[in-house]
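Translate sequence into structure tokens.
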Amino acid sequence: MSGQLAGLLLYSAGLIAFGVWIGRRVDSSGGFFVADRKLGGFLLFCTILAANIGAGSTVGAAGLGYRDGLSAWWWVGSAGIGTIVLALWVGPRIWRVASDNGLLTVGDFLEHRYGRGVRAMIAILLWLGTLAILAGQLIAMAEILQVVAGAPRWVGALIGGLVMTAYFSAGGLVASAWVNMVQLVVLVVGFAVAVPWALGAAGGWDAVVSAAPAVDGYLSLGQGGQSGWIYLALLGPAFIVSPGLLQKVYGAVDQRAIRTGLLAAGVALMIFAFAPALLGMVARTIDPSLVQHEQALPLVLTQGLPPILGLLGLAAVFSAEISSADAILFMLSTSLSKDLYKRFVRPDATDRDVLRVARWAAVAGGVLGVGLALVLPSVIGSLTIFYSLLSVSLFVPVVAGLYTRRPGVAEAFAAIGAGLLALLVARLIDTTEASRLFDPTLVGIVVSAIAFALVSLIRRSGEKEAG
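Result follows.
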């Protein structure tokens, strides 16, 4: 066993032990789902920031930096912008609705606003899409361990799946928030050391510029290669309405904690966004002929840093993937136990029954995620599936549901159905060939909004004629 793998296993055991110790106090669904609404601004900042820095923000973004240059900033920067919108706009408002009505999940909100049919549809869609992003986090862990520690892919996926499932199933949001705080410290220290050291070892910025490929806009922040501001259409909405993030918002002690904690997290994400992009560009100075660009970050950890710093960087990346993975497991667990089991299978289930199902759902989600990680080919590919599905199906119903009163079930179904159909068609015919403005996710959101508005107008006209 390599020293890096041994160190990572020791760190993993510590995370599990800490999470289980915190989780021993959780004995109700309210504690498991929303931490009894006691999260202050600092813990909210830690758990939101840790959840938003995952496979896409490290392995994936570094790969984009290797391929497209500085414009890879937008992959993580867009998440920061979405988080700021959540902090100042959607978050405080949905927290007030959830607090006033005792809502525990986004499914609770959708039923409160539109009815049980919409809740059921979104719960099923989330289970399908969320497994893809969970697999993406595990793929990233497996790839890092494969390159840095020489562990087979299945070993990396299994270690990641075991760690996140163990501490999350023990304590839900409470355990996640406290474990995320530890992970965030390791993550920040690891990247704060890795970026300047790797850049210096590569010969500084001049060496990065010299190694820049013949990619249009490689040194431009706005757009380079296939990366750039268009990621805002794919990622921005997803980080505003993600059930995993909204349910963490539900756990806030008050609206002030949401504004301060999430605003700080959004700004931190926009700063952090430079780190993976720069590390990817540094990787090009080490090996300009890398076949798989998602191997850029593992390359830097093994060849751009001394062994002890490589281990620290490995722990930082592992922390990032695990913290995001537990947020995804959060969505899976709460969606199945509350939105499906409690609402449709056993309406008379006790609080203890719901808590037990939530924990077993977390275990099932972890197992399925590991299995899928061994099948899906890439990190960015699996994450794109999830972000597109999430944005198109949830953005319009959630935001419109918060700021309008008249539209109901018909509008919500029309928005979800039309948006998903438009997304599928846009992907099949590859609308981005015509213009980057025709990004399939953006097309889906626009069509979803149009469908929502049209059905609302038709219903109003019908009501006036009937009146």
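Note: The CA atoms of residues 154 and 374 lie 7 Å apart.
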